[in-house]
Amino acid sequence: MVQKAKILLVDDRPENLLALEAILSALDQTLVRASSGEEALKALLTDDFAVILLDVQMPGMDGFETAAHIKRRERTRDIPIIFLTAINHGPHHTFRGYAAGAVDYISKPFDPWVLRAKVSVFVELYTKNCQLREQASLLRLQLEGGGSGGVDAGKETPGLLAELSARLAAVEEQAEALTKQLGEEAADASVVATAAHLERKLTGLRRALDALEPGAGGGAAVLPLQG
């Protein structure tokens, strides 16, 4: 079972948080509330999130400042941020949102179906990355144990490699389908870039796994995944 992704909802108005929860509940993921920028940053210290929905107009630390803090942190800089705003000051205001690191900038009132669709793409990308990290972890364990496991480890290697290959193939198939879907829907450039990054990591992991196959002659494989 793949663990549910966490989605961070940041808004100082409880009724807005309730509305977001109603819209996103159909995705069947874990929704985490934060009523201020400070509270959001605190949640990001301990949990990993697939995407952040961040209100721009908040008292104290506004959305732009909160996003700046998120992007400065090594742990959180790659988490997609979707800005939500009830006001529209024109192109300059929108540009400031993208400059702060947002992948999207949506004005209220927004179409619930569109918002849910955008969030679902990032949830799916996050899930595929988690699956990829799991395969990389298993491969690392195999690499570390292969040189000191003796006869028993050698007997287990072909079966484990076959299992890893099958799991990776399933992730590759899902990632290919997602990339095709994004192309058909003319998705945002930032989303397409994230999907392409995932595909590159999949390719690197496949090469590392192939190098471990008997007769490959690849020696010790270098794993491509760091985060």
From TrEMBL:
Domain of life (superkingdom): Bacteria
InterPro entries per record: Bact_response_regulator, CheY-like_superfamily, Sig_transdc_resp-reg_receiver
Coiled coil: 161-188
Domain Response regulatory: 6-123
Nucleotidyltransferase listed as a keyword: no
Residues where 4-aspartylphosphate is found: 55
Keyword list, A-Z: Coiled coil, Phosphoprotein
Protein name per the record: Response regulator
Species this protein is from: Streptomyces cirratus
